[in-house]
């Protein structure tokens, strides 16, 4: 039975800006998404049943049809029923290295890996844009996870354009393993608290009157100006998450006092990341923050920016 081992990298948000409300309940977003080297490993193998069998080594990750990787396999089965009947089912094994429910798109990356893996096992020959169209049906971060690197996402987050790849910076990720933030809660709270800062157009789309933060960051990325990138990273969801989770706010403040390029919460949190110009600065800032906060629930990862999306490690 043919099998593939794939790497599914985590992402951080260099920018998450909510620029409008939509009548369908979603938000108009501008996001700058960035892959990092920290990655889950996905082993996917053809099986002689017609089923999807999924195992994950992390106790908090579901192994049923609520797992995003399972849903990705189901989407492929439903989209290509004859190929599915011919090749049979799949066995998916997920080795989690990316913290779960952390704002790092762990589940989205796993789903992207399953789309790529089944495309290979079934020899479908789908191109990256074709895989991304399928990915968009599963969730707004998943098309990015297919291609990775540095990209700007607009609309609900599903319209993607690549930016100049950034790879020269190191990243410290820090997350309390006893704190999780609900993404719907973060967006709903933002909508309630900042409703007044929108104006409505004729179609009912509400737009922000406030300053848009993406332009200076995009300029800094175009110039690969690490110091300026560190200054221009931005996340609107911090406004609702940090007041509600003072430990996360204190963690960000502790990083801000270090010799780093910049610090920010990723996505809806609660992971805080610090951008650093070298590995030694990443290690030094991690050690300083660890010794200042001294909480066994606070976990750290040191990684690097990456230009890669889903990668094939090996095939059999
Ligand atoms: P995003 O940044 O895309 O919002 P996240 O990093 O905040 O994602 P995930 O790690 O993807 O969050 O997990 C969110 C929830 O989804 C978890 O609570 C988990 O139960 C569920 N989940 C479903 N499939 C997966 C998966 N393959 N890996 C991790 N979590 C998954």
Plain-language structure description:
It is an enzyme of class 2 (transferase). It catalyses: 4-CDP-2-C-methyl-D-erythritol + ATP = 4-CDP-2-C-methyl-D-erythritol 2-phosphate + ADP + H(+). ATP binds at residues 99-109. One of its GO terms (molecular function) is 4-(cytidine 5'-diphospho)-2-C-methyl-D-erythritol kinase activity. Catalyzes the phosphorylation of the position 2 hydroxy group of 4-diphosphocytidyl-2C-methyl-D-erythritol. It is a single chain. With 316 residues, the protein is α+β, with helices and mostly antiparallel strands. The chain has 2 domains: 3-164, Ribosomal Protein S5, domain 2; 170-306, Alpha-Beta Plaits, CATH 3.30.70.890. 35% of the residues lie in helices and 31% in strands. The protein has 11 helices and 14 strands. Strands 1, 2, 3, 4, 5, 6, 7, 8, 9, 10, 11, 12, 13 and 14 form a 14-stranded mixed sheet that branches. Helix 7 runs antiparallel to helix 8 (226-232) and helix 9 crosses helix 10. The longest helix is centred in the middle third of the chain and has 16 residues, at 106-121. It is globular, with a radius of gyration of 20 Å. It starts with a strand and ends with a strand. The model has no long low-confidence stretch (mean pLDDT 93). The chain binds adenosine-5'-triphosphate (ATP). Adenosine-5'-triphosphate (ATP) binds next to helix 1 and helix 3. Adenosine-5'-triphosphate binds at residues 60-62, 66-69, 94, 100-108, 110, 141, 183, 267.
């Amino acid at each position: 039975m043919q099998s593939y081992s794939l790497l599914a990298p985590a992402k951080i948000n260099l920018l998450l800006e909510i620029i409008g409300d939509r009548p369908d309940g979603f938000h108009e977003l501008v996001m700058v998404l960035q892959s990092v080297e920290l990655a889950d490993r996905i082993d996917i193998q053809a099986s002689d049943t017609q089923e999807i069998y999924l195992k994950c080594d992390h106790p908090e990750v579901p192994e049923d049809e609520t797992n995003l990787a399972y849903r990705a396999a189901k989407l492929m089965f439903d989209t290509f029923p004859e190929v599915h009947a011919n090749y049979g089912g799949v066995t998916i094994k997920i080795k989690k290295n990316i913290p779960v429910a952390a704002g790092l798109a762990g589940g989205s990356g796993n789903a992207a890996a399953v789309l790529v893996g089944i495309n290979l096992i079934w020899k479908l020959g789908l191109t990256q844009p074709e895989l991304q169209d399928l990915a968009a049906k599963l969730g707004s971060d998943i098309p990015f996870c297919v291609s990775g690197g540095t990209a700007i996402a607009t609309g609900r987050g599903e319209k993607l354009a690549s930016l100049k790849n950034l790879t020269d910076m190191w990243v410290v990720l820090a997350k309390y393993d006893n704190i999780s933030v609900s993404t719907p809660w973060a967006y709903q709270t933002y909508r309630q608290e900042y409703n007044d800062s929108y104006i409505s157009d004729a179609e009912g789309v509400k737009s922000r009157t406030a300053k848009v933060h993406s332009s200076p960051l995009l300029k800094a990325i175009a110039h690969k100006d690490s110091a300026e990138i560190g200054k221009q990273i931005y996340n609107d969801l911090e406004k609702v998450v940090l007041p509600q989770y003072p430990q996360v706010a204190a963690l960000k403040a502790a990083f801000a006092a270090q010799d780093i390029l910049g610090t920010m919460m990723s996505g809806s949190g609660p992971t805080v990341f610090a951008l650093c110009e070298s590995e030694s600065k990443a290690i030094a800032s991690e050690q300083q923050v660890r010794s200042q906060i001294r909480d066994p629930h606070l976990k750290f990862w040191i990684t690097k920016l990456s230009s890669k999306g889903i990668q094939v490690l090996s095939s059999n």
